[in-house]
Amino acid sequence: MAFKVLLIDDEPWALEGLQLWVPWENLGFEVCGLAGNGAEGLKQLEELKPDLVMVDIRMPVMDGLEMIEEWRRRGGWSTKFIILTGYSDFEFARKALKFKVSGYLLKPLEEEQAESEVRRMGLELIKEQEQLYIGQIALREQEMLTMKEALLGKVLSGEGAKLMESLSRSAQAWNVCLVQVSEVEYGRWSSLAAEALDGPNVIYIIRMRNDLVSIVFGDVSPDPQATSGKLRKQLEALARRLAGFRTYMAIGSTESSLNSISISRITAEEALLHAFYEVERNSIMEYVLLQNHVFQRHYNQVELSERVLGAFQLIDYTAFRSAVEFIEQSFRETRVHPDEARKFVIYLLHEIRAYMGTQMEEDERHSYRLFEIPDLDDALLTFDDLMEMLHSCGKVCFEFLFKENTFEAHGIVQDINDYIHTHFREGLTIKLLAERFFLHPAYLGQLLKRKNGISFNEMLHNLRIEEACRLLQKNQYKNIEISERVGYASYHHFLKQFEKRMNMSPNEYKKT
Questions:
Q1: Pair 64, 83: CB distance under 8 Å
Q2: CA triple 415-420-422, angle to 5 deg
Q3: Treating both helix axes as pointing N-terminal to C-terminal, what angle do 406-423 and 441-452 enclose, rounded to 10 degrees?
Q4: Backbone dihedral region of 372: left (phi > 0), alpha (psi from -120 to 50 degrees) or beta?
């Protein structure tokens, strides 16, 4: 961006000459305004906030030095001034130095000298701008470091305490929104957060650890309720945009000063724990709504462990499913603390893997690894994640146990055969049968063929055709009605299977 320059002279031709003789654009400036005396110039200084002012000394109403003196009195010390004068008067020069005038030019102006002086002003402004930027970065880093210490409840140094006091005065009230986000998604999250939280509000985004971020925000309005509502909408909009992320957010208690911001962070952590049981990932946990919802740390760990592990010893998949479903229901109802729930489920996974290791000693392909067990410190794991892991590992393990245990497999086949004999008239498929008995369809098909000597489909067609023969002998139904009664949706399919097995058509069978 170009620097702004204001030109002030009581002679119109002089103003016109200044605009034309100096190549402002090439020197990095743009003329933002013109004034005919010091009073007008002072007004435009307030409105335009120029970086550089080129002003004549001798002017009516208010001369150039009086205007500069007044502007400095008002605190405008960053503005640079070049004075124009036709008098080489020492008193003017001494007074100009008192008001920190950056340079002066004698009238009539020489174009080269004017251009050189303006170029020098531009270089000074660039240097000051760079120093200001570096200073702002250093100050911001100091603010962030001190803010993080305050969030963690550390005792601040004298300088740090003064800085927090100063920052506290920039808002009426302060709060913390904690965000749990995976390390791999942090970069994308931070860009969305910067965009969603852009605005006049006082906001600090501080990374507490790889998977946890604190958003410290202040209400700057005299009406905190109105500002709080705007900030809440911004945070809710951010939460909606993060719906595709594995991210959780929680807001702590509102504090009047940054000196107590650690309380807001602690209460936000308490609220964030409730995300463990919540299904919606784009909702925001609020301490004010959850502070009376207490977690329990006590549960019957021994009994629950025995139910789960006992199901493996008995090779009873139904009992296993029942035990896991009971854990899921009871933990949700009693609100077992996330740390305890996480430790217990991971303990069960380790115990199951240890038990299965003894059962798979001869199976070198699988004994070294059965399933992955998550890290206990993974704070982004929800209760649903853990229950899904427990169900999945149980399904894999029991499929292996069923396959390897001949006696148990025989008992299951008998149950399956009984079920097929009862339900063969229905739209029975190997997939439906597998879901009914909690087995993999491919494994179930192989198991039935190995134990029965024929495939599931062959057995199903045999039972249907046997039933069809019985109904044909009664001679009470039409052939197509019999086809439907025994489970065929297509009469052509029924006819094909009947002739294949009986070597004759249904009508021919009736005559025998």
A1: yes
A2: 95
A3: 90
A4: beta
Using CA atoms, how far apart are residues 194 and 99, in angstroms rounded to an integer? 42
Q: Are 175 and 271 in contact (CB under 8 A)?
A: no
Percentage of the residues of the chain whose pLDDT score is greater than 90 = 49
For the entire predicted model, the pTM comes to 0.58
For 49, the 3-state DSSP assignment is: coil
Are 85 and 8 within 8 A, CB to CB?
Answer: no
The 3-state secondary structure of 291-357 reads CCCCCECCCCHHHHHHHHHHHHHCCCHHHHHHHHHHHHHHHHHHCECHHHHHHHHHHHHHHHHHHHH
Q: What is the DSSP letter of 155?
A: P
- Alpha helix positions (H), 382-512: 383-404, 406-423, 430-436, 441-452, 456-474, 479-485, 491-502, 506-511
Per-residue confidence (pLDDT) for residue 450, from 0 to 100: 76
pLDDT greater than 90 at residue 355: no
CA dist., res. 81 & res. 265, Å (int):
49
CATH superfamily of 407-511: Homeodomain-like (1.10.10.60)
Tokens of 187: 């970069």
Query: Average of pLDDT values for 206-231?
Result: 73
Instruction: Give the chain's mean pLDDT.
Output: 86
Q: In what order do the strands lie in the sheet with 202-209?
A: 202-209, 212-219, 173-181, 247-251, 284-286
What average pLDDT does the segment 386-401 reach?
88
The CATH class, in words, for 3-129 is alpha beta
State residue 285 phi and psi, 5-degree precision: -75, 135
- Read off the pLDDT of residues 441-463 as tens digits, 9 standing for 90 and up: 766 787 788 788 899 999 999 99
Residue 317 CB partners (closer than 8 Å, separation 6+): 311, 394, 398, 402, 438
> Dihedrals φ, ψ of 11, to 5°?
-105, 115
251-266 mean pLDDT: 93
Residue 341 has pLDDT above 90, yes or no: yes
Per-residue model confidence (pLDDT) at position 221: 56
- The pLDDT tens digits for 361-373 are 545 444 445 667 8
CATH 3.30.70.270 is held by the domain 152-289: yes
Query: 């210490």: which residue's tokens?
Result: 149
